[in-house]
Specification:
The structure is a single chain. This protein has 218 residues and is α+β, with helices and mostly antiparallel strands. 33% of the residues lie in helices and 23% in strands. It has six helices and eight strands, in the order αααβββββββαααβ. The strands form two sheets. A five-stranded antiparallel beta sheet has the order 3-4-5-7-6. Strands 1-2-8 form a three-stranded antiparallel beta sheet. α4 packs across α5 (187-204). Mean pLDDT is 79; it is low at 18-50 and 57-61.
C-alpha cells in the first residue's frame, strides 16, 4: 500500500513539473502586441513639403520699350531718335538753306540756358553736317563720321568751346559774372541756372546713343 502511494506521488510531481516547463516556454516565445514605428515612416513625417518655385523675373511686369522722339531731315533723307526725357529741353536748328548743317541745342528755363546772345537758339550740344560742309565750319571738335545716306557722308561734331561753360561759371561766381548783354543774376535766375546745368549734363550723357540711331528715312 505504501509503495502504491509513493508511486502515485511521483507521477503527480512529474506532471506538475512538466506543466511548469510548458508555461515558461510559452512566456519566452510569446510576441509583443506593441509594434515599433517604422523608421521610414518617421522620416516621411519629418520631411518638409518642397516649396513652389518662384521666379522673381516673372513677377515683374514686362518693361515696355522706351518711347522715342523721332526727328527727320526730309531734305537730306536721314532721321534721329531722341529719348523721351529730352522733350521740352531741346531745339533743332537748321544752319543753312538746304538743311545740310543742323545743330541740336539744349533749351533751358533760365536766360543763360537759352543763350544770352540769342534767346531763341539755346546752347549747342552737337551738330550733324555733310562732309562738304566741314571746310566751312573751322571751329569744330570731336568730328566723326556717323553714316551715309543716298551716297552722301554725314558727320557728328561739337564746337571747340564747351557749350555749358557759361552755366558753370554763373553757378561758381554769380556775383562776379559779367556779360555784355546786361544780364543780371537774381535768386530766381540762379536757381533756374542750377537746374539747367543738371539737366544739360543729364542730356549730354545720351548723345552717344542718339548718334547710333542715325539712319536713312527710307
Amino acid at each position: 500500500m505504501l509503495k502504491k502511494f509513493i508511486l502515485i506521488f511521483i507521477i503527480i510531481m512529474e506532471a506538475v513539473g512538466l506543466s511548469a516547463c510548458n508555461n515558461n516556454y510559452d512566456k519566452n516565445n510569446s510576441t509583443s502586441a506593441i509594434t515599433e514605428p517604422s523608421p521610414n515612416a518617421a522620416n516621411i513625417q519629418k520631411q518638409k513639403q518642397p516649396s513652389e518655385p518662384t521666379n522673381k523675373d516673372s513677377q515683374k511686369s514686362a518693361q515696355k520699350p522706351a518711347e522715342k522722339i523721332l526727328f527727320q531731315n526730309s531734305k537730306c533723307g536721314y532721321k534721329l531718335e531722341l529719348p523721351k526725357n529730352w522733350e521740352g529741353h531741346y531745339k533743332i536748328e537748321s544752319l543753312n538753306s538746304n538743311d545740310s548743317v543742323i545743330s541740336v541745342n539744349f533749351y533751358g528755363k533760365s536766360k543763360a540756358g537759352r543763350d544770352l546772345i540769342n534767346s531763341k537758339k539755346g546752347l549747342l550740344i552737337f551738330m550733324i553736317l555733310k562732309e562738304a560742309d566741314l571746310a566751312d565750319n573751322p571751329f569744330l571738335d570731336s568730328v566723326q563720321k556717323i553714316g551715309e545716306v543716298n551716297g552722301v557722308s554725314y558727320y557728328y561734331a561739337t564746337k571747340t568751346d564747351y557749350p555749358f561753360g557759361s552755366l558753370d561759371n554763373i553757378i561758381k561766381s554769380p556775383d562776379t559774372y559779367y556779360n555784355d548783354s546786361g544780364y543780371k543774376i537774381d535768386a530766381t535766375e540762379l536757381s533756374l541756372v542750377k537746374n539747367d546745368w543738371e539737366k544739360a549734363k543729364s542730356l549730354e550723357k545720351d548723345v552717344d546713343e542718339i548718334i547710333k540711331t542715325f539712319g536713312s528715312i527710307k
